[in-house]
Design goal:
The radius of gyration is 35 Å and the shape is elongated. About 35% of the residues are buried. Helix 9 packs across helix 13, helix 15 packs across helix 19 and helix 20 crosses helix 21. The protein has 4 domains: about 210 residues, Heat Shock Protein 90, CATH 3.30.565.10; about 130 residues, 2-Layer Sandwich (Ribosomal Protein S5, domain 2), CATH 3.30.230.80; about 90 residues, Rossmann fold; about 130 residues, Four Helix Bundle (Hemerythrin (Met), subunit A) (Up-down Bundle), CATH 1.20.120. By secondary structure, the protein is an alpha+beta fold. It is built from 21 helices and 22 strands.
């Protein structure tokens, strides 16, 4: 029997092909062809389970073989195979899908069916100049050979095949001969097939013998047919989860903080394990670590639109047959099942964090520095997550003590509420650089938070919106006497001429730093407070920090850093300076300042406390200090 004809492609059935075929990478063909082989194998298992296949299933492995001499890549299975009529129906008429028919007939027993045979198969022509199918059905009918050279013309004839199953033989074209390399196929099998539910065999296991690797008699099974996420959480140990994490990310040097095992069968199907990793400095480098599977077939590691944005920082595996595959991101974002799955994952993450907070708070505190970026990102981007997380989100102070939002309010509201009844939270982002200001604030009875994370500046802005009459102020944004205003400010009485000359004297000794501006201000801070201090305006500094992560705020990133040089007019040095310069001209004031070692010293001390005294200026300061001694 020989049959020749044209593959049936009509306007009505071309759209599912387009949806299935518009792959960005040709390598996807291997996933599709092997998935079809696994599909056929799973069908045989189902028929055996319901008694329609009476024989011994035997070895059900799917085998992948390279032949460089014939330039072929062959994928073989021992599944249900196809009759001539089925080949004609499922291969020659692209609109039909054997999986659909099979699911209709065995809907109660076919949960593990992967795909739609007859559609993904055609992806093989992306890398092949010719494709052959040699197949024999589990039914007692002759074997069939089908061949096609990448156009609508095909040829079908009887074949000499004794065992049931299907061989897909790809004659790789010249442009894609990389797919005949063992290392290339190994990498693709590892990427797409390492957790398929049917054994995938590629060659033989090797051992080191006589100075080289040689094949053994044992099949090289490349996949784990029962991965951890498909197992019931009950009975699994912590080490099982850690081992699986190392299998997923063999190059990772860090252990995960903790994990969440997902196992949902209603109102949608979802299994998986999500790990909270130790996050390094760059958020972007941590993305694309969640692997998406459909019935253990790898789909993508770009899961934006399937999980909430903040959870793309997690690592792990999600597996769901309810997520549509190979379609646009806009389609994913509007799909109801995807939305339900996304909401469920958010809820499970919040549940897990709240459970740890309630049962093992010490553990949460120990891991908070690595964990907080997830929580802050979630609170910033997901309103519902904010509502949950506000109960367990932690603030850490400079003494490494942790507080919930409510606990910290109770701690500070009696001492850090200003004259306008606003609660002022002081914070630092570098304990060493801002030590002087932290120490002064503690001396005043204030507590200081540590805000040194990537998202802290955005998070505290959100908290200012959410928390009633609360604002955050960095500890070096003003003098300790004025950072939390309790009473009306004491004004400093200076004439315009006195202000002008004092400003000129101070400005003439300040360094020229690129994109940095100094403004001189005069305050009454008491005789024991330092004569000169340098602070940085909270608003402008915070806008600059936020602009670094928000392109829409680039304008602020171009603005200079604004610092206030605050002269304490109650201090004897400041009083003496005023008396010496108040009647001088501008030139006389500048000349006087350049020769005044005491004035240089107090300004350099202020610069030094802000980490702004470097190079020659620092060397001169040290020499002058010795001389003044």
């Amino acid at each position: 029997m020989i049959k020749e004809g044209q593959i049936g492609v009509t306007t009505g059935n071309i759209f599912p092909i387009i949806k299935k075929f518009l792959y960005s990478d040709h390598e996807i063909f291997l996933r599709e062809v092997i998935s079809n082989a696994v599909d056929a194998t799973q069908k045989l298992k189902t028929l055996s389970d319901v008694g329609e296949f009476k024989g011994d299933p035997g070895d059900l492995s799917v085998r992948v073989v390279i032949d460089k001499d014939t330039k072929t890549l062959t994928i073989s299975d021992r599944g249900i195979g196809m009759t001539a009529d089925e080949v004609d129906k499922y291969i020659n008429q692209i609109a039909l899908s054997s999986a659909n028919d099979f699911l209709d007939q065995y809907k109660d027993n076919a949960n593990a069916i992967i795909g739609h045979f007859g559609l993904g198969f055609y992806s093989s022509f992306m890398v092949s100049k010719k494709v052959e199918i040699v197949t024999k059905s589990y039914k007692e009918e002759p074997a069939v050979k089908w061949s096609c050279e990448g156009d609508p013309a095909y040829k079908m004839e009887e074949a000499d095949k004794t065992g049931r199953g299907t061989d897909i033989i790809l004659y790789i074209d010249e442009e894609n001969e990389a797919f005949l390399e063992k290392s290339k196929i190994e990498s693709l099998l590892d990427k797409y097939c390492k957790f398929l539910p049917v054994p995938i065999v590629f060659g033989k296991k090797q051992e080191w013998k006589d100075g080289k690797y040689v094949d053994t008699e044992e099949d090289n099974v490349i996949n784990d047919v029962n991965p951890l996420w498909k197992q019931k959480p009950v009975g699994l140990k912590d080490e099982d989860y850690r081992d699986f994490y190392r299998k997923l990310y063999p190059m990772s040097m860090d252990e995960p903080l903790f994990w969440i095992h997902l196992n949902v069968d209603y109102p949608f199907n979802l299994t998986g394990i999500l790990y909270f990793p130790k996050v390094k400095n760059n958020i972007e480098l941590q993305r694309n670590k969640i692997q998406l599977y459909s019935n253990q077939v790898f789909v993508t590691d770009s899961v934006e639109g399937i999980v909430p944005e903040f959870l793309t920082l997690l690592h792990g595996v999600l597996d769901s047959p309810d997520i549509p595959l190979n379609v646009s991101r806009s389609y994913l974002q509007s799909d109801n099942n995807v939305k339900k799955i996304s909401n469920h994952i958010t809820k499970k993450v919040a549940d897990k964090l709240e459970e740890i907070f309630k049962k093992e708070r010490t553990q949460l505190e120990e891991k908070w520095d690595s964990l907080k970026i997830f929580v802050e990102y979630g609170m910033l981007t997901e309103e519902r997550f904010y509502d949950r997380a506000s109960k367990f989100a932690l603030l850490k102070n400079t003494d490494n003590k942790y507080f919930t939002l409510d606990e910290y309010k109770a701690l500070t509201e009696s001492s850090q509420t200003d004259k306008n009844s606003t609660l002022v939270y002081l914070y630092a982002n570098n304990k060493e650089d801002q030590y002087t200001f932290i120490d002064a604030a503690k001396g005043k009875g204030y507590d200081v938070l540590m805000m040194d994370g990537q998202l802290d500046v955005h998070w505290l802005g959100l908290l200012e919106q959410k928390l009633e009459k609360t604002r955050f102020v960095r500890v070096d944004s003003d003098t300790v006497e004025h950072i939390i205003e309790k009473d009306e400010k004491t004004s400093v009485e200076l004439s315009d001429k006195e202000k002008e000359n004092l400003t000129e004297a101070i400005q003439s000794l300040l360094p020229n730093i690129d994109k940095t501006e100094f403004n001189v201000d005069f305050k009454s801070l008491g005789e024991t407070t330092r004569p000169v201090q340098i602070t940085q305006n909270e608003f402008s500094r915070r806008m600059k920090e936020m602009s670094a992560m928000q392109p829409g705020m680039a304008f602020y990133g171009e603005m200079p850093d604004m610092f206030q040089v605050i002269v304490n007019m109650d201090h004897p040095i400041a009083k003496q300076l005023l008396g010496e310069v108040k009647d001088k001209s501008k030139e006389e004031t500048t000349a006087f300042a350049s020769e005044n070692a005491r004035l240089k010293q107090v300004i350099d001390l202020a610069l030094l406390s802000n980490g702004m005294l470097r190079g020659e200026a620092l060397s001169n300061f040290i020499k002058r200090s010795v001389e003044l001694l």
